Inverse folding.
DNA sequence: GTATTACATCGACAGAAGTGATTGTTATTG
DNA sequence: CAATAACAATCACTTCTGTCGATGTAATAC
């Protein structure tokens, strides 16, 4: 697939002169990139992505035991995935009696979403 | 942080009767989730995220040797990250003489971006 | 009290991933 | 031709990640 922008070819440097100085720089700084990459990494698993999909449209409606049969994984593994989502700041939970209700933290996905758009 | 929706608490099941049937389901199916998770995973590294940030605003302008000094990693490691982005279908490259020009594939991020929004 | 249920934590394991030194490949220069 | 430059590929190493079985904990039911 060709690209639609003009290439700006370089000429070979004279011997001894090292490669090009950078001419462009990232717009997102390092700290921002680390934050967004952490969120992206947490979403980088199909099960976690579907979990977030369920949770953000049914906050407070589903307990963990209802989530387990949605995926072909064991309960400890699901618990682990929820932990990873929590560590990334994407979800949090509330306990009511025997049941735990997870929900997506509002605006947790906003920075990444804005950058992607 | 409390949630703003009403919880729908369950009552304990009678002995022997196993846990709740799922009442809600993901809206994104498995195949879709695998695709998007693959993209998210590739973005789940600060360097790769900044790489995409540079490339999508300067397609065809930067050769790899200009990218190396932007990050504190070796050239083979940068090459490895570019390979991962390519494997995820996010970027592709074109060779011109000694130089390789990477660019972000149009719409490669669209599905994930749309789901996040 | 005991039994049971929902969920978390721990331990272990295989496979994936990030890193760099070294080597290989291709193209340009002289 | 030889020398050099840009980039990719290989190898080795360490750390991280997904998975499950077993165990632990807290709450409810009897």
């Amino acid at each position: 697939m060709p690209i639609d922008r003009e290439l700006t070819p370089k000429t070979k440097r004279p011997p001894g002169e090292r490669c090009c100085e950078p001419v462009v720089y990232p717009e997102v700084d390092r700290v921002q990139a680390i934050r967004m990459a952490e969120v992206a990494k947490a979403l980088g698993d199909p099960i976690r992505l579907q979990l977030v999909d369920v949770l953000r449209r049914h906050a407070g409606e589903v307990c963990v035991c209802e989530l387990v049969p949605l995926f072909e994984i064991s309960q400890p593994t699901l618990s682990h995935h929820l932990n990873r989502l929590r560590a990334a700041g994407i979800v949090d939970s509330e306990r009511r009696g025997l049941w735990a209700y997870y929900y997506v933290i509002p605006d947790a996905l906003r920075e990444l979403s804005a950058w992607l758009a």
Remarks:
- DSSP finds five helices and two strands in chain A.
